[in-house]
Amino acid sequence: VCIHRVRSCSSIRVIKSKYVCVFDKSALKFSHQQRLFRTSAVSCGQIVQFKLSDIGEGITEVTVKEWYIKEGDSVSQFDSICEVQSDKASVTITSRYDGVIRKLHYSIDDIAFVGKPLVDIEIDASKGVASEEDVVETPPMSHEEHTHQEIKGHKTLATPAVRRLAMENNIKLSEVVGTGKDNRILKEDILNYLAKQTGAILPPSPKAEIVSPLPRSETVAAAPKDKARKIPVPVSRPIVFSGKDKTEPVTGFQKAMVKTMSAALKIPHFGYCDEIDLTQLVQLREELKPLAETRGVKLSFMPFFIKAASLGLLQYPILNASLDENCQNVTYKASHNIGVAMDTEQGLIVPNVKNVQVCSVFDIAAELNRLQSLGSAGQLGTSDLTGGTFTLSNIGTIGGTYAKPVILPPEVAIGALGKIQVVPRFNGKGEVFKAQIMNVSWSADHRIIDGATMARFSNLWKSYVENPASMLLDLK
Amino acid sequence: MVLRPSLKNCLWLSCVLRTPKAGFKSTACGALIIQSVSNDVYQNLAVEDWIHDHMDLEKKQVLFLWRNSPAVVIGRHQNPWQECNLRLLRQKNIKLARRRSGGGTVYHDLGNINLTFFTTRKKYERMENLKLVVKALKALRPQLDIHVTDRYDILLDRHYKISGTAAKLGGTSAYHHCTLLCNADKFVLSSVLKSPYKGLKSNATPSVPASVKNLFEEDPTLTSEMLLDAIAKEYATQHQIDHHITLINPADETLLPGINNKTKELQTWEWVYGKTPKFSVSTCLNMAYKDSVLDVKVNMDVKHGRIEVCNIDLPEQWLPPALHSELVKSLTGSKFCPNETTTLATTLLRVCPHDDELHSRWNLLCENMIMLM
C-alpha cells in the first residue's frame, strides 16, 4: 500500500532510503505512531498524492467550494485543506500528512472525484505518514480505548495530549511522577521531568496547545480541575512571543476618514478650554429624568448642552458658518444642525440633530434617542449623517478631562466635553462645597474665528449650562 | 419524558461530554439526547460546532434538539443577497446566520424545530435519520400523510415541504440536521426569503423554493413540544437508551469550554457575509432627478463580501470627474454593506465643494448604490 516515490539524490541516500522504507512498513502497522525516527537527512521530499476520501452514502463526486491553503503553504496533519459540497452536505477535508502543498488539482467550483487526487503534498522524508488503509482519517488519540495505560501492572493516568508530549520527548510515563488527581500525570510533570533530565528549561510543546485537531482530549477540561489539587511547582519557561505583524489595507470608511482628517489638518485650530460647574444642572436633570421617561425618552446631559450651544450660536453665528475652499466666502448657516460624535463598532460617526434652534430640550432628547439606537444597529441614513454645522463630542463618557478636538470640515468649530468629576470648590461665601465639574475644550478655525469670539461664546454657553434657569429667558 | 435540569445532571453531562469513554451505570452507552435552553441561533449553531469538534461519537451518538427566535439561516456556500431580503431582515430585527453545513436557506422561529443527529463519519446516514422522524410523527398522529423524498425533504400530503436537510462532515465526525415546521409564521417566511436584489451573478449554492405547510395546519392539536418529545422517544427506542432529555445551556463555558468563542465567530461579519463566494452585481439604477430619469449602469465584483471592482457609468459631468473617481476608489476594497457605504459616502461629502446641487446629486447616487446592498 506504500505509494511513496522515493527520490534519492545520492548513492548513499539510496541505502538510507531502503532503511526508511523498511521502517515505514512496520510503522504503518501501529496506526498511532508518527515520528519513530529522526534522521538528519536533507528533506528530499516525496510527493504524495492525497486523494479525496469517501464521503459516504455512495457519493462519487463533489464540488470544491473553498481552498484553505494554496500551493507552497506548509500543512500539518489534521489542518483543513478545503471545503467541498455534495448534495446539501458540506465536507471539510483535512490533511493526512505534514508537508508542503505542491499542487492543487482543482479550482473553485470544479467537480472533484472521490478516489482521485485532490492535492499533491511534499512530505518531509524523515517523518512517517499515517496509515493509508483507513479510508477516513482518524487522529491517533481516538484509537486509544482508555485513558489508562497499563505499564508494569500500574495504571498510568494521562490525557492523550500529555502522552503525546511524553512520546515526543522519549519519556516513559512510568518514570514520571504524577501530581494530579489519582496520581494523574500532568503536562507540568513531564516538563519538570525533562528539566531535571536535561538541566535546561524547555518550552511546552506547541502541539499540546492545539485544541481543534485533537478534540478528544480532556486537556481543556481536566487542567482547571487538576490545577487546584497539585502542589504548585513553578516551571519557568522562556517567554516566547510568537506574535506577527499584520498588515491590512485601509479601506472603505477608514479611507474616507483619512481624507477628512487630512483636510481638517489644513485648518489652523485655535483651542480654548474652560471648567464648567454642573452642580445645578445635575440636580435639574435628576428632577426631569422621570418626567421624560414617562414620555418614553431617556434624558441625558447632552440635550441641555446642545440647546445651550444653539442659544450661543444665535449670538455668535460665525461659529455656525462654513468657509469655502478658496477662503473667499463665509456662509452663515441658518440651521443649527448640531452633530453628536458617536462611537460605534466601525469607528467615529457623527449624526446630527437638525434645526436645534427650533427644538425644545425634550425634542432634542427624543431625537438623540432615535439616532443612538439607529447608530448602534448600524442603520443610520444619509440624511442623519449629512448637513451638520457644529459638533459636540462627549468624550467624557469614555473618560478624560481636556481634549484637543479636530474640526470636522466643512464646519468651523467643535467642542469636546470631558467627564464630570466631583471636586471641592469655594462658593461666594468662601465656604468649600461639593461641585460637579466638567471640562470643555473648544477648537475653532482661526482663519475666521478669533480668540475673543470663541471665549465669549464659551462664556455664554457656560452661563446657560451652569445656571439652567437662565436658558428660560432666551428660549425661543 | 423526563427532564432533569438539575445541577447534578449538569455535572453528569459534563462528564459525559468530556470523558465519553468512561462507562455510566444510569444510561447504557450508545446515545444521548440533549436540548438547548437557548433560542439564540448563534449559540445553538455554536453548540453544533462544539459537539462536532470535541465529542467522540464512536461510543455515543447524540441527538440535539433546538429552536430559535426569528432568524434566517443560510448554507455554508450561499449568497445572502441572493437568498433573502436583507433590508427586511434588518427592519424586522431578524437575525442572519450562516451555518457550517451545506444546503439551502431556511427561516427559523419558535414554531420550527431543529434536530441534529451526530454520528461518526462511518455511521453517517441521512435517510435513516429522516425515517426515524417520520416514524415518530406517524406514531404520534397515524393519519399524517408524510414521506421522505430522495432529496432528503419531508413532504406532507405529497406536496408541502415540512422539513429540509443539511449536513456537515469533518475529520472523523459528521452531523445531519433538519428542520420541522410545526407552527412557523409562513407569511414572514415567504417575505424574508424573497430576494429583491437584481443583477446578481454567482456560483453560490442556490436554494430550491418549495411550498411549505405547518403540521399545525394539518392538526391544530400539535405543538412543538409534542413533536420534540415524540422524536426523542423514537430515538431513545432505536438506540436503546432511557427516554430522557438533558438540557444544556449554550453559554456555559465550564460545560462547553471554548463555546463563547465559537458563538462570537458565528456572528462576525467576516463569517456571515465575508464567506460569500465571489459574485458580481450588474444592474441599472433608474434615478429620478429633477424632471428626468437617469439610467446609471453599475457593475461590481464582490469577493469575501468586499467590493473588488467597481464601475459606475454616469452621464458625463453629472458629477465632477474627480468626485466620481473618488467615490469609485473609496468603494473599492470597502465592504458590500449599506452601513459601511453610508458612512463612507457621508464622510467623503465633508471634503466635497460646498454646492447644494452637487450635494443632492451625490446623496441621490449614494442612496441608490446603498439600495443594492
TrEMBL record, chain A:
Check the record and name the InterPro entries matching this protein. Answer: 2-oxoA_DH_lipoyl-BS (IPR003016), 2-oxoacid_DH_actylTfrase (IPR001078), 2-oxoacid_DH_E2_comp (IPR050743), Biotin_lipoyl (IPR000089), CAT-like_dom_sf (IPR023213), E3-bd_dom_sf (IPR036625), PSBD (IPR004167), Single_hybrid_motif (IPR011053)
Q: Any idea where this protein resides?
A: Mitochondrion matrix
Keywords, comma-separated and alphabetical: Acetylation, Acyltransferase, Lipoyl, Mitochondrion, Phosphoprotein, Transferase, Transit peptide
Give the principal location in a single coarse category.
mitochondrion
Q: Which cofactor does it need?
A: (R)-lipoate
Residue ranges, annotated region (Disordered):
130-154
Query: From the Swiss-Prot or TrEMBL record, what is one GO molecular function term?
Result: lipoic acid binding
Q: Name one GO cellular component term.
A: cytosol
Question: What Enzyme Commission number(s) does the record list for this chain?
Answer: 2.3.1.-
Domain Peripheral subunit-binding (PSBD) intervals: 157-194
SUPFAM superfamilies xref list:
CoA-dependent acyltransferases, Peripheral subunit-binding domain of 2-oxo acid dehydrogenase complex, Single hybrid motif
- Pfam families in alphabetical order: 2-oxoacid_dh, Biotin_lipoyl, E3_binding
Q: Which residues form the Lipoyl-binding domain?
A: 47-122
Catalytic reaction list: N(6)-[(R)-dihydrolipoyl]-L-lysyl-[protein] + 2-methylpropanoyl-CoA = N(6)-[(R)-S(8)-2-methylpropanoyldihydrolipoyl]-L-lysyl-[protein] + CoA
The UniProt entry's sequence similarity note says: Belongs to the 2-oxoacid dehydrogenase family.
Provide the function of this protein: The branched-chain alpha-keto dehydrogenase complex catalyzes the overall conversion of alpha-keto acids to acyl-CoA and CO(2). It contains multiple copies of three enzymatic components: branched-chain alpha-keto acid decarboxylase (E1), lipoamide acyltransferase (E2) and lipoamide dehydrogenase (E3). Within this complex, the catalytic function of this enzyme is to accept, and to transfer to coenzyme A, acyl groups that are generated by the branched-chain alpha-keto acid decarboxylase component.
Question: What is the name attached to this protein's record?
Answer: Dihydrolipoamide acetyltransferase component of pyruvate dehydrogenase complex
What's the name of its gene? Dbt
From TrEMBL, chain B:
Instruction: State the SUPFAM superfamilies in the record.
Output: Class II aaRS and biotin synthetases (SSF55681)
Looking at the record's lineage, which domain of life comes first? Eukaryota
GO CC list: mitochondrion
Q: Tell me where the transmembrane regions lie.
A: none
Enzyme Commission number(s) from the entry: 2.3.1.200
Predominant location category: mitochondrion
* GO biological process annotation, one example: protein lipoylation
Write down the chemical reaction(s) this protein catalyses.
N(6)-[(R)-lipoyl]-L-lysyl-[glycine-cleavage complex H protein] + L-lysyl-[lipoyl-carrier protein] = L-lysyl-[glycine-cleavage complex H protein] + N(6)-[(R)-lipoyl]-L-lysyl-[lipoyl-carrier protein]; (R)-lipoyl-5'-AMP + L-lysyl-[lipoyl-carrier protein] = N(6)-[(R)-lipoyl]-L-lysyl-[lipoyl-carrier protein] + AMP + 2 H(+)
Q: Which residues form the BPL/LPL catalytic domain?
A: 57-243
Q: Name the pathway.
A: Protein modification; protein lipoylation via exogenous pathway; protein N(6)-(lipoyl)lysine from lipoate: step 2/2
What InterPro entries does this protein's entry cite? Answer: aa-tRNA-synth_II/BPL/LPL, BPL_LPL_catalytic, LipoylTrfase_LipoateP_Ligase
GO terms of molecular function: lipoyltransferase activity
UniProt entry tagged with the keyword Disulfide bond: no
- What is its subcellular localisation? Mitochondrion
Ordered alphabetically, the record's keywords are: Acyltransferase, Mitochondrion, Transferase, Transit peptide
Q: What protein family does this chain belong to?
A: Belongs to the LplA family.
Q: What does it do?
A: Lipoyl amidotransferase that catalyzes the transfer of lipoyl moieties from lipoyl-protein H of the glycine cleavage system (lipoyl-GCSH) to E2 subunits of the pyruvate dehydrogenase complex (PDCE2). Unable to catalyze the transfer of octanoyl from octanoyl-GCSH to PDCE2. In vitro, it is also able to catalyze the transfer of the lipoyl group from lipoyl-AMP to the specific lysine residue of lipoyl domains of lipoate-dependent enzymes but this reaction may not be physiologically relevant.
What is the designated name of this protein? Answer: Lipoyl amidotransferase LIPT1, mitochondrial
Q: Which source organism does the UniProt entry give? A: Onychorhynchus coronatus
